[in-house]
Design a protein that fits this description.
The complex is a heterodimer of chains A (about 190) and B (about 300).
Chain A: E1 2-3, H1 7-17, E2 23-27, H2 34-44, E3 48-52, H3 57-61, E4 67-69, E5 73-74, E6 80-83, H4 86-95, E7 100-103, H5 119-122, H6 137-140, E8 150-153, E9 160-163, E10 166-168, H7 173-180
Parallel strand pairs in A: 1-2, 2-3, 4-7, 7-9
Antiparallel strand pairs in A: 5-6, 6-8, 9-10
Chain B: H1 3-16, H2 22-36, H3 42-56, H4 63-78, H5 87-106, H6 108-116, E1 124-129, H7 133-144, E2 149-154, H8 161-171, E3 176-179, H9 184-187, E4 193-196, E5 200-202, E6 207-210, H10 213-222, E7 227-230, E8 236-237, H11 249-252, H12 255-259, E9 272-275, E10 282-285, E11 288-290, H13 292-303
Parallel strand pairs in B: 1-2, 1-4, 2-3, 4-7, 5-8, 7-10
Antiparallel strand pairs in B: 5-6, 6-9, 10-11
The chains are: A alpha/beta (about 190), B alpha/beta (about 300).
C-alpha cells in the first residue's frame, strides 16, 4: 500500500515490477488527489493497481503485506514529516502489524526535532478552497476550514528507512545525522 | 587532607552555593584536595584521589552524580602530557585542567536551558517530578522568553522536595500546583508534556532518578505524552541495568543506612528508581538533544 504520489516510491515500484509480481493499493490522499496520478502511472507500467479513499485505509489494511511511503523530511528523532494522511496509514499498519517502509533519499534528513503538537509552528496550511469551495459563500462564513499539507509520524511507527545509502532503522537516524551535519549546524 | 577534612570541605562548598549541584561541589573539593595533597609521585596522587573519591561517596546526598562526575573529572585531568620532571609543575597542570573541567561543567545547565526551552510552547501544561535544578533553569529560561505555561509538581515523598520546587517556581512567577505522588495518573490527561531531571544517565539510554519517575513514565507512555529528561553530561554513567534490582545499592539507599550493621535492605525504601529508555522521548543534555539510542554513542565519546 502507498499514499499520495512520491516520485521515489514510483520509481521504486516500477523497477521492482520488472522482476516481481505484486499488487499496489494507492490511497488517493485528498484534497490533492495525487494518489490517482500515481495509480495511472503505475497502471501504464503494467502493475495491478487499486485506488482507495483515505477513509478506507483501516478497512483495507488487513489485506496488506507492506506499506511503502515516501516523505518530505526525516526528522532528527527518526520520525517523518510527510503528506497528510500518513500518520493514519502508519497507525493502521501498526495495528495490523504491517511493516512500514519509507523510501527516501538522505538529503531529506533534517537536524530539527518536532517541538510540540502545536501545528501552527510545524505545519504548512494551504488554501481551504480544495476542501470547501469559496463559491459556497454562506457556509464559509459559518465554519473554519483548515487544509494542512503535512503530517508528523512518530519514529516508533516506522519499521525501516530505505535510502540511497542502504537500509536503516529509525533509531539509527541520529548517527546518519552526525555524519551529514556538524553539531554546530543543528540550528538551521 | 584526611577523610573528615574532605567531607567537611564538601559540606561547606555546598552550603556556600545551594544552587550548585552536588557533583560540581565534589569536583571543587577534589581540586582543593589536589592542591593540598602531599604525594610525591603521580601514581601516589592518583591513589590518594581515588581514596578521596571513595570518601566523598560516603555522604547522604546524591551519590550517583558524585560517582560519574568524579570518574569523568579524573579521566579529563589525566588526559594530558604529564611528562614534566618537576612534580609541582605536573600538579599545577592537573589543577588547571580541573578548573577547565569545572568551567565546562558549570556552563552545562545554561546550554541545556537554551536547547530545551523551544520544546515548551505558549499555553503548555507541564508535569515535573520532585526538585531538579536543571529543570528549574530550563523553566526559568522559557519564562524569560515570555512563554506562558503552568506547572504541576509532585510533592515527592519522603523528603518532600516537591514543596521546595513549588516555592522556587512560584517565586519566578510561574503558576504552579502541588499534587500528591499518587495523583500522577489522574493529572496525566491534563498535561502536555512531562519534564524530569536525572541523577544518572545510563549506558542503555535509561535514567536513574528520584523514586516515582518510572511510574510517571509509564503513565505518560500510556497517555501518549512526551517524556523529556534534562541532564548534564557529567551524569553519564557506565552502567547497564536490566531491571530495578540491577541498580547498585549505594545509589538506592543513603550511605548512613547502608553502613548500619542491623539494616535489612529488603525492608528499606529505595530513594531512586530506573526508567528504561523505551519510555523516554528525548534527553536534553549539553551535548545536544539526544534520542535514547544516541546516548550510548555520546557516553563512549566522553569516556574514551
Amino acid at each position: 500500500m502507498t499514499i499520495g504520489k512520491s516520485r521515489t516510491v514510483e520509481a521504486f515500484l516500477k523497477k521492482a515490477a520488472k522482476k516481481r509480481n505484486f499488487q499496489v493499493i494507492v490511497a488517493e490522499c485528498a484534497p490533492f488527489y495525487h494518489g490517482q496520478e500515481l495509480a495511472t502511472s503505475l497502471a501504464s507500467a503494467g502493475i495491478e493497481t487499486t485506488v482507495i479513499t483515505d477513509s478506507a485505509v483501516f478497512a483495507i489494511m488487513s489485506r496488506v503485506n507492506k506499506v511503502i511511503i515516501g516523505t518530505h523530511t526525516v526528522m532528527a528523532d527518526g520520525g517523518l514529516k510527510s503528506i497528510n494522511g500518513s500518520h493514519t496509514v502508519a497507525l493502521a499498519a501498526k495495528y495490523y502489524s504491517v511493516p512500514l517502509i519509507v523510501c527516501t533519499a538522505m538529503f531529506k534528513l533534517s537536524p530539527q526535532y518536532q517541538c510540540s503538537y502545536d501545528q501552527d509552528a510545524y505545519n504548512k496550511f494551504v488554501s481551504p478552497n480544495d476542501v470547501l469551495k469559496y463559491s459556497d459563500g454562506e457556509l464559509i462564513s459559518k465554519v473554519q476550514v483548515h487544509n494542512p499539507v503535512f503530517d508528523y509520524v512518530p519514529p516508533d511507527l516506522v519499521t525501516l528507512y530505505v535510502s540511497n545509502i542502504g537500509g536503516n532503522a529509525p533509531s539509527y537516524v541520529y548517527r546518519l545525522l552526525s555524519e551529514l551535519y556538524h553539531p554546530d549546524d543543528h540550528e538551521l | 587532607m584526611d577523610k573528615d577534612g574532605i567531607l567537611q570541605l564538601l559540606t561547606e562548598t555546598m552550603k556556600n552555593d545551594p544552587s550548585m549541584s552536588v557533583a560540581v561541589a565534589a569536583i571543587q573539593t577534589l581540586i582543593e584536595f589536589i592542591k593540598l595533597d602531599t604525594a610525591e609521585t603521580l601514581s601516589g596522587l592518583r591513589a590518594n584521589l581515588k581514596e578521596a573519591i571513595d570518601t566523598l561517596m560516603k555522604t547522604d546526598s546524591s551519590v550517583t552524580s558524585i560517582a560519574s562526575g568524579s570518574e569523568l573529572f579524573l579521566r579529563f585531568i589525566t588526559l594530558t602530557a604529564l611528562d614534566h620532571s618537576d612534580f609541582e609543575e605536573c600538579k599545577a597542570i592537573l589543577v588547571k585542567r580541573g578548573k577547565l573541567f569545572l568551567q565546562k561543567v558549570g556552563s552545562s545547565r545554561k546550554k541545556i536551558a537554551k536547547l530545551g526551552h523551544p520544546f515548551i510552547r505558549d499555553g503548555a501544561t507541564i508535569l515535573i517530578h520532585s526538585r531538579s535544578r536543571a529543570v528549574l533553569q530550563l523553566l526559568k529560561e522559557a519564562a524569560e522568553f515570555k512563554k506562558r505555561f503552568n506547572v504541576f509538581v509532585t510533592e515527592s515523598m519522603p523528603d518532600k522536595y516537591g514543596h521546595t520546587m513549588h516555592n522556587e517556581l512560584t517565586a519566578l512567577g510561574i503558576p504552579t500546583t502541588l499534587i500528591l505522588d499518587s495523583a500522577v495518573g489522574y493529572i496525566m490527561e491534563k498535561v502536555d508534556l512531562v519534564l524530569v531531571g536525572a541523577e544518572a544517565v545510563l549506558e542503555s539510554g535509561g535514567i536513574v532518578n528520584k523514586i516515582g519517575t518510572f511510574g510517571m513514565a509509564l503513565a505518560a507512555k500510556e497517555m501518549n505524552k512526551p517524556f523529556y529528561v534534562v541532564a548534564e553530561s557529567f551524569k553519564f554513567h557506565r552502567l547497564f541495568p536490566l531491571n530495578q534490582q540491577d541498580v547498585p545499592d549505594q545509589f538506592k539507599y543513603p550511605w548512613s543506612r547502608l553502613n548500619q550493621s542491623d539494616v535489612d535492605l529488603s525492608k528499606e525504601h529505595p530513594r531512586v528508581d530506573y526508567t528504561p529508555p523505551g519510555y523516554i522521548t528525548l534527553l536534553f543534555t549539553d551535548l545536544g538533544v539526544l534520542t535514547p539510542s544516541a546516548v550510548s554513542d555520546e557516553l563512549i565519546k566522553i569516556y574514551l
